Structures are given as structure tokens and as C-alpha cells.
Amino acid sequence: MRVLLLEDETALRETLSERLKREGFVVDACGEGIEGAYMAQEYPIDLAIVDLGLPGKSGLDVVKELRRADKRYPVLILTARDHWEDKVEALENGADDYLTKPFRTEELLARVNALLRRAGGHASSDVVFGPLKVQLNSQKVTLNGEPLDLTQFEYKLLAYFVLHPDQVLSKLQLNEHLYEDDADPDSNVIEVILGRLRRKLDPDGDWKPIQTLRGRGYRFSPDA
Asked: 126-220 has which CATH code?
């Protein structure tokens, strides 16, 4: 999952970036509103964390612009402003959640995961597809009730599929949402990881939850 972090406090921005990366997210970070507004509209973002008090252009204006541009991914507002009027204004202009500084990083991560799973149509953090259970908060996966041992990249790929079921996802999309910008989009890394993931999910070849659509990409259709 690719997260945009717009926060002008350098220490906080760096701390949150590192923590999000440790949790498996790809992070684009910026401390300025004008550049942040460009990134919010032009980058393949899955969720944005936006501070209201950005220099150059306010976080609220960034949110208004990306909603006018029909960008529908979730937005979590960060701010030191704790007046209810500020919260209402942000939510009415397209924000999905609001976190007041100071805050615990664990709460921010919980809100990020909740927003992502809701955007994927899941009310619970435990997502079940037939014999497969993915616990998005703890990143634990079981198959037929038994723990499934996945590498970090295998889990990232599975989680993205789980949050986008029955959608055709191209190799370029997967590269953009799962890897840093310096990743080679023409490499066969996705195919290698996908092959390993398929063997772990479907060792007997009977279920086939991940389909390959020649010339278009891949589709996670566990109920097909």
C-alpha cells in the first residue's frame, strides 16, 4: 500500500515515515503544501495523511483539490487544532478521519488500517475468503486454520489483492503500490513473488484464487 504523508514538522515526518515503512507501506513524504497537492493528484496513492498547517498551501486546500479532481482514496487529517469546528470543516470537505496532536503512533496505524480496509469494503480487520483468513492488523495469515508463513513482500502482495478483490491489477499498478520509485517496473520480481504466493495459497492447484489475464494483469477472485 502506498501512503502519502504531508507533514511540515521534519522530525515527526521522518519518524512516521520510518514507522510506516517498517509496517510494510511505501511512503511518499513531503513537508510543503504546493508540492504535496501535486503528489496527492499525480502519484498512485492508496491513502493520504495530511497536516492542516502546511506552508505554501494548507492541508485543507490540498484535500479540497484532490476531491475536486475525483481522487477517492481515504484521507486522515493530522493537526494540533482541537476545536470541533476545525474537525467538522475538514470532514465536510472530504477528509475521512481526524487525529489531533499529540498522538500515539499505534493509534495512527490503527486508523490507517481501518480506513484502508473500509475503502476495500471490509468492516472487520479479519478478512476471510473460503479457507483463507488474513488479519490485516496483526498481519497474520492462516489457510485452513493453519498459520501460513509468508515473506514481507508475499504478505504485501496478498494484502493488496485482498483489499482489491475481483479487480484487474496490472503489473505496473502492483509495482507502483508495493515498491519504492527506484524499483524496476520491467523486472520479473512480481512474477517470482506471485509464483511463490500461489504455491503457498494453493499447493494442490485446486483453488486457483489468483488469475492471470494475459496482456492485462492479475485478478484475485477467491470465489470464482
From this structure: 1.10.10.10
- CATH 3.40.50.2300 residue window(s) in the chain: 2-119
Closest Cα partner for 137 from 150, 126, 122?
126
Q: What is the pTM of this model?
A: 0.84
Residues of the chain with CATH 1.10.10.10: 126-220
C-alpha cell at 203: 499447493
Compute the distance between CA of residue 17 and CA of residue 126 in angstroms, rounded to an integer.
25
Phi-psi region of 217 (alpha: psi -120 to 50; beta: other; left: phi over 0): left
In contact, 219 and 167? CB cutoff 8 Å:
yes
pLDDT confidence of residue 95:
95
Which DSSP string do the residues of 122-178 spell out, in sequence order? Answer: -SSSEEEETTEEEETTTTEEEETTEE----HHHHHHHHHHHHSTT-EE-HHHHHHHH
* Domain 2-119, architecture per CATH: 3-Layer(aba) Sandwich (3.40)
- pLDDT, tens only, 47-93: 999 999 999 999 999 999 999 999 999 999 998 887 888 889 999 99
The rounded percent of the chain whose pLDDT value lies above 70 is 96
Position 180 scores a pLDDT of 73
